[in-house]
Amino acid sequence: MLVDVHTHVYLPRYASWLRSRSIAPRILVNEAGEERLLILENETSAGRPVGPSYWDRNAKISFMDQHGIDISVVSFANPWLDFLSPADAESLARDLNTDLEEYCATSPLLQSSTLKRLYGLGLLPLVPGISIPSVLAAVSQIAKAPHLRGLIMGTKGLGKGLDDDALDPVWKAIEENGLVVFLHPHYGVDSSAWGEKENGHVLPLALGFPFETTTAITRFILSGAFDRFPSLRILLAHSGGTLPQLSSRLASCIDHDPIVASRLKHDARFYLGKLWFDAVAYGPEELAFVSEIVSRSERYETGSSNTKALADRKQGSKRMLFGTDHPFFPPLSSSEKWKSVVENLEAIDAVDGWGKEEREGVRAGNALTFFNIQ
Amino acid sequence: MLVDVHTHVYLPRYASWLRSRSIAPRILVNEAGEERLLILENETSAGRPVGPSYWDRNAKISFMDQHGIDISVVSFANPWLDFLSPADAESLARDLNTDLEEYCATSPLLQSSTLKRLYGLGLLPLVPGISIPSVLAAVSQIAKAPHLRGLIMGTKGLGKGLDDDALDPVWKAIEENGLVVFLHPHYGVDSSAWGEKENGHVLPLALGFPFETTTAITRFILSGAFDRFPSLRILLAHSGGTLPQLSSRLASCIDHDPIVASRLKHDARFYLGKLWFDAVAYGPEELAFVSEIVSRSERYETGSSNTKALADRKQGSKRMLFGTDHPFFPPLSSSEKWKSVVENLEAIDAVDGWGKEEREGVRAGNALTFFNIQ
């Protein structure tokens, strides 16, 4: 069985908004008469091709069938509602969450099962100036929608990031309702970092996205939010960006800085064991590493220094979940299986230390438990 | 035996320059009459304490003795000459390289050995507007200095980064002379990423530094420089930043981008096997991971998919080298051993899969070979 936890949709209502806009994010028609998606204002190219795979449910199901995916937990794609006024964000969040529940509720049943093939992650009207009750209303709407199991969130919060104390009532409501937060990047880092050479989308996608996710979750941890809301269930996009590789450095920097040295209840590395990670990293060593890092979290409670790579990998795999990032990363030539998907599946198969049980968990079982799909 | 390859010095001549300045980088005297180092103009605090450990050779040797370090390969500290005019950079580079050779040449002998206790990494006058012959003269000066074994370099190159074709003659000269390039961060990323909360230096140091190194070496690789200069020997600070964890994602993004998909001779992951990494990551799993990533490089030539974590770790350890980052990360309270150093030593001891041979290699042997100290 195979469950995809990282798969996006621009629902028709959202695509219409993008078509109506004259600045990014927008969908425009180029000189060849083709629709193109421009996500960021400073994108150097003329945007990316966009079509039915972005909004047509049949295209999603067809992609799933082609790659043997049984169930997808579909989330809205960046930049969500970030660019809207509070009033527009509030009403569009309500409508899109309703649309997504309908999209999932009317999806086909999984063969010989009562499960649907599509479940969803809604969104919140997180924009500067929104009232907290409006955000809480969206949390409540999602919690009541039978096929929505959480929400996808960018890194800006109410405009000041995820370490903003004003978000505490939102975290509390999400925690109380047992909803999953899927944390996903959009902005990268300041594009001056990428220099003047023409490198397509490689640098913002390969580096900027994971840098942004890493920064957001680090600021969240540093704010003590996990100490206040220890039952929050956060899934990090792209295998946690670079947080795993920087986690001991982060712990050391905290230890050596008088301003933050005694702020948190735990060593910074402890908090990585409270997170979930998609398995969208394209290589077996990367997946293996994340599973070790998750596993060692416990040692920062028990004081044990026992580090056994292969055993750690087995245990940590329980917090890793297969994903595709569909409809992004399509093959340069069409019709064959998507290389991006095949690579992630091959990576799961190739992790040294994972047996049949761990591979099946990462492919499906962990997601069914995490999203309470049964 | 223990060799420290990541240890910095602000030589007296350089400290004098910093004291003469009224904007960062500068050394100022605060209201309490203490000298403070302000490295970046937008640092939120009043800079960091600075003293003899930054410039006094006796303090360096004393630190080495305290931690059992036999030999240090000392490098200049950021921001090097980045802030100077071409004329000042050229003359200060010449003088500082002379000073550093003297600093090493007159250092004590290692007990019962003809080796000195200090070797050095010089610097180049890499600033916008400098002439390439001036840079080449500095390469030549370093190559002729008996105790200098390479140079430390920031990420700006001639102002446009390390993917600037204008640097090709510099790479060629460095390669031909067999000098090591120690690539080190200074600028981080745009500080707007860190938000409004007071977190001391944690975010720019723990995240910004590794992000910068990762971006610089990725741009270097993407420019095809390793295809043109395959014998360049580059050592990455802080265990390569986040390049290892992002390397399969990078390879995938390159594969999926028509602008760069066919530019390089090799899969992006191949190039990680051409690099060296300091072991300044503060955790055993991080070191283990880097050694696996180095090792898998070969598989992208042979097409083998055999991944055996513990064997890979042994092989990859040969490109990893102990470091301290002295005089940075001093303990919050003084006199005891530096926690930052102890953690890096404990991490080397705790890597699952490294035996006595690998640990001794990372502690000393790899560095002696890499820097040709014999």
From TrEMBL, chains A, B:
- According to its UniProt record, what is one Pfam family this protein matches? Amidohydro_2
Give this protein's Gene Ontology molecular function annotations. Answer: carboxy-lyase activity; hydrolase activity
- Which GO terms are recorded in the biological process aspect for this UniProt protein? secondary metabolic process
- Entry superkingdom: Eukaryota
Q: Which UniProt keywords apply?
A: Decarboxylase, Lyase
Q: Does the keyword Lyase apply?
A: yes
Keyword Calcium present in the record's keywords: the answer is: no
InterPro entries, per this entry?
A: ACMSD (IPR032465), Amidohydro-rel (IPR006680), Metal_Hydrolase (IPR032466)
A single GO CC term, please?
Answer: cytosol
Domain Amidohydrolase-related, chain residue ranges per copy: 3-290
What is the similarity comment for this entry?
A: Belongs to the metallo-dependent hydrolases superfamily.
State what protein this is by name: Amidohydrolase-related domain-containing protein
Q: What organism does the record attribute this protein to?
A: Lentinula raphanica
